[in-house]
């Protein structure tokens, strides 16, 4: 799961460079939480389909 997050963090960091730092930091933490929730859902769906 960490490998997936690293690539997503790279994209989020690129976007946050354009946005002011405080907003970028908030945005990044929100985006990471959303991705983590999505990953958990996808993992659960994949596990159920086995």
Largest sheet: none
- Oligomeric state: single chain
**Which word captures the global form?**
rod-shaped
Q: How many strands?
A: 0
Give me the secondary-structure category: mainly alpha
Gyration radius, rounded: 13 Å
Q: Ends: how far apart?
A: 19 Å
Helicity range of the residues?
A: over 70%
What's the pLDDT, averaged over the residues?
69
Q: Count up the domains.
A: 1
Low-confidence blocks of residues: 1-7
* Relative strand content: under 5%
Q: How many H/I helices? A: 2
H/E topology pattern: HH
Q: Which structural traits does this protein have?
A:
disordered N terminus, mainly alpha, 50 residues
Description of the structure:
- The protein is an all-alpha fold.
- It has one domain.
- Helix content is 92%, strand content 0%.
- It contains two helices and no strands.
- Helix 1 (2-18) runs antiparallel to helix 2.
- The longest helix is centred in the last third of the chain and has 29 residues, at 21-49.
- 0% of the residues are buried.
